[in-house]
Design a protein that fits this description.
By secondary structure, this protein is mainly α. It is 90% helix and 0% strand. It has a domain at 25-142.
C-alpha cells in the first residue's frame, strides 16, 4: 500500500511539474486581472442594488413613523369622543405598524452592515486590482525581446545586463582602492 501511495505521489508531482511548464505567467496574470475586474463589477452591482434597497427601507420607515404619529392623533380623538371600538381598531393598526417598523429597522441595520462590508471589500479588491495591473506592467516590460524566449533564461539575461560593470567603474574603483591602501 505504501508503494502505491509513493508512486501516485510521484506521478502527481510529475504532472504538476508539467503543468507548471505549460502555464504562461503573463496569460495567468491577465486572466487574474480580468477575473478581478469581473468581481469588482459584480460587487459594484450588489452595492448599487443594496443602496437602492436601503433607500426604499428608509422611505418606508419614515412613512411608518408618520403613520404611527397619525394613529396617536386619531387615538386622542377617539378617546375624546368615547369611541372605544374605533380606538381599539386604531390601537391594533398602531401595534401592527410598530411591529412592522421594528422589523424594517432590523432589516435596515442589517442592510447597512452588509453595505459597509461590501464597500470595504470593493476598496480592498480595488487595491488588489491596482497591484495586479502594476505587476502586469512590470511583467510586460520584462517580456523577452523575441517571441518564444525561455522565461528562466530571460530572467538570467536581464540580471546579467543589470550586473554588467563598465570600464570607467573599474578605473574609479581601482583608484579608490589604490588611494585607501597608499594612505595606510
Amino acid at each position: 500500500m505504501a508503494l502505491i501511495n509513493r508512486i501516485s505521489r510521484l506521478f502527481k508531482a510529475d504532472f504538476h511539474a508539467v503543468l507548471d511548464q505549460i502555464e504562461e505567467p503573463e496569460a495567468l496574470l491577465k486572466q487574474a486581472i480580468r477575473d478581478m475586474e469581473d468581481d469588482l463589477a459584480d460587487t459594484e452591482q450588489r452595492i448599487a442594488l443594496c443602496a437602492h434597497d436601503q433607500q426604499a427601507l428608509t422611505v418606508r420607515k419614515t412613512e411608518l413613523e408618520s403613520a404611527i404619529a397619525d394613529f396617536d392623533t386619531q387615538l386622542d380623538l377617539c378617546f375624546e369622543s368615547d369611541k372605544d371600538d374605533l380606538a381599539k381598531t386604531q390601537i391594533k393598526k398602531k401595534l401592527e405598524a410598530q411591529r412592522l417598523l421594528k422589523r424594517l429597522s432590523t432589516k435596515h441595520a442589517a442592510n447597512e452592515k452588509y453595505l459597509d462590508a461590501q464597500r470595504t471589500m470593493l476598496d480592498e479588491n480595488g487595491s488588489t486590482l491596482v497591484s495586479l495591473r502594476q505587476k502586469a506592467e512590470l511583467f510586460a516590460q520584462r517580456a523577452p525581446a523575441y517571441p518564444g524566449g525561455d522565461s528562466e533564461f530571460d530572467d538570467i539575461a536581464w540580471m546579467a545586463r543589470e550586473m554588467t560593470v563598465g570600464d570607467d567603474e573599474v578605473e574609479i574603483a581601482y583608484l579608490r582602492e589604490k588611494s585607501i591602501r597608499s594612505a595606510s
